[in-house]
């Protein structure tokens, strides 16, 4: 049985299936919640496919955005709304986040990190609510949305407010997300089971194989993150929603379908529910030819090339770090394509070329590509998985350290630390993933896992979006656990009752035995006495 | 968005997909474990599809079987083995089981039922081990199997021994099953999460909506069934396996992929795992024309027909019950097709015709069919779901009462009791599901749910069977929970540790406070004394 011949045929069959589906999909009217950065990058291919299939896609777009631009040519309809803060305020905050995550955190105590983190989460929440003002508290926007007669709202829940908007519009809601802090929303709102004994909490840097102390840490981490989220997210949002609705509201924050942007090639196998669909790698596609950088890539000869980017968020790093990195890269035999917008480092080798932007997916799919140096964003990792390229991770923040731990534990990556790494660390790491065969083999294994499923990630996402429109929701996939309290869910009330009954029965039988025994003794005594 | 036009197009696309898949599947060599009755009926269509796709299918077939016959024309290769008991012994036992389930159980106390049930389970286990003697303890059979160079073993785990056989042959294993008692194997061997608060235990007759006392009963039921299974199944099988392997063995009883024969049209939504695939309705297919019974069906006019069968296991019922049923059926305006092998009842109406065998799926798919009277077997129910036919359930044993509770709770069926029902009960039940519109509507809703999924059940089953052969197992879908003990899984050790630490900290701070307080007091006293 040959996987090689299987996959292309399967793909073409899938295309046929899609063509058939296209002809049958009567255009739906889809509203898309605003999103930023990788979240927006990840939504786009699904929206493009939905438009190809005859649906109308309208995207809510804020007046202040670092990534969403209405002036770019696009097939989406845009519904603009006002954010109650300036782009400068947003950018200053993001710079602070980067500074903290990349440089300051390493020099801080746990307590300091915690205080700073809470502070940043609170500011972030203020921005989120600033966006919401322009939607939920704007009569103009809400009137337009109501008149839009949408069939569905598609949203990344990291940008809050979509659930209340869907409720007010009376339409089904689909979440698309990578993860929430400690899987808090998935667990507490989506009822996704997450036993801390083998499901590592988000941002814990743990794998599914944990020893006792790691399991203790994971357990505590879940609780700590729940407390953080309760304080900086739930309380604020409950208050805001209550204000909008004019009545006290406790958030549900749940959706008809949860499109999770991972799969078992990337994530550790875990329990899930019928309305959770794992569609990691939505944006992956076959590589296209590379006219712009073709000559440079070809000049690499047998040594091949290394692709290096720190993602769409990081534009600049300190001169010292840039020089160190450039120096390390100059010591490897491969040609390096580095996406970097800062000043050209002095130590830049002849083998390294800096680009403002690189066609990342097409480069990773090029047969000459030997390794990918990455900050560990989900989108980039998925492109590397898709094309079977081993990785060197320089993770920065949020899910990136976790993501790289996943790739390392699956044997497809080496991790180096951005702040503490020296020239030789980075150089050795790149040489290791290129020269030790196991890294390439494991990357190819992940690639095979990624492709060997009944439907591509994008087709599956599109199927469930259309499914939810067809059925006006997805009620029959919703577990009854939503109607239970936490102690009912864990059967604690039942357990308490059963234990009480058992104890009472034991007590009763002891009392009865004692009584019988006493009666017997009395009779014997009486008999003796007679 | 129109579901009506969507479904046929989707089906044709699926056929295209299958054709594409066919050309790419290099023939695998599949071994199939023996099975009986509905278990065998359900496996057949998958095996047929596998043969269509170029695989070789070899079925282990015992010398003693009520359903598997080597002399029927078939495209399967057969591998016969000897069972160490006679067909008569088997048939006598099955008759006893039917007698108990259909007539005797109603007159027994819970304790009597329990004792009788345990006794029957033990006898059943003896038969199972009697079959196993012909495989695992037969050098001839094991030699042939080893020489067969199989790529995969496909088995219904209700017939034990397949796991050890797969282990000895060193090949991957796929389970296909409806359920095990209290989901014992799925939970304890497959690590499938089953919170008793909303996942009803098998054979509990409960739904996913339970009040407090039902949750208590469900909780206790899980424990009781685990105890039963531990005594009649695990201990016996552990002993047998240890004997075969020549070393003490604790059963794993798990597989690479679990093909569960339900879906959310039939079952209640519940948590599951990446290697559990829900493929209920594998055998469903479009109805074919009905030359044999066509005239009788057509003669029903606008009233239409009712299809009635008690399944492949029940061949006979008492004259009294048969007369009662015939009398009830004679009072409805529909024509009735009754599959029955007993003596012709005296009260049989002109509208009812008895058949030795009926083309059940084709009849249920006929546009004149108004209702299905069924014993509640999974296969029959799935055919009714597929064709959107409301049901009257007369459940007998094992999963049948549960199955009918599912259909009733979804509003597509009425249940009557075989022993206590009177003529008017059955008549009214049939009239209700035919005349009250909601039953037909709900049946059609289930039919739509059943068909509206990315892939048909059979295609999905075939995909995962081929997937497992391609990948020589399905390791990356296996949760790490398999490596944990039950108290580790539930984090009880972690919880104990955390509580101890917290208590110690509290104790320490109290002691410290007390000490400080005493020191202060002492100093004050001293100060005063001075």
Automatic annotation (TrEMBL), chains A, B:
Please give the InterPro entries that the UniProt record associates with this protein.
Answer: UDP-glycosyltransferase (IPR050271), UDP_glucos_trans (IPR002213), UDP_glycos_trans_CS (IPR035595)
E.C. number: 2.4.1.17
Q: How does it sit in the membrane?
A: Single-pass membrane protein
GO CC: one term? membrane
Instruction: Indicate whether Transmembrane helix appears among the record's keywords.
Output: yes
Domain of life of the native organism = Eukaryota
Sorted alphabetically, which keywords does the UniProt record give? Glycosyltransferase, Membrane, Signal, Transferase, Transmembrane, Transmembrane helix
Q: Which reaction does it catalyse?
A: glucuronate acceptor + UDP-alpha-D-glucuronate = acceptor beta-D-glucuronoside + UDP + H(+)
GO-annotated molecular function: glucuronosyltransferase activity
Q: Which Pfam families match?
A: UDPGT
EC top class, as a word: transferase
Task: Report the leader peptide range.
Answer: 1-27
The protein's matches in PANTHER family, at most eight in alphabetical order, are given as: EG:EG0003.4 PROTEIN-RELATED (PTHR48043), UDP-GLUCURONOSYLTRANSFERASE 2A1 (PTHR48043:SF140)
Spell out the family assignment given in the record's similarity comment: Belongs to the UDP-glycosyltransferase family.
Protein name (Swiss-Prot/TrEMBL) = UDP-glucuronosyltransferase
Give the species. Anabas testudineus (Climbing perch)
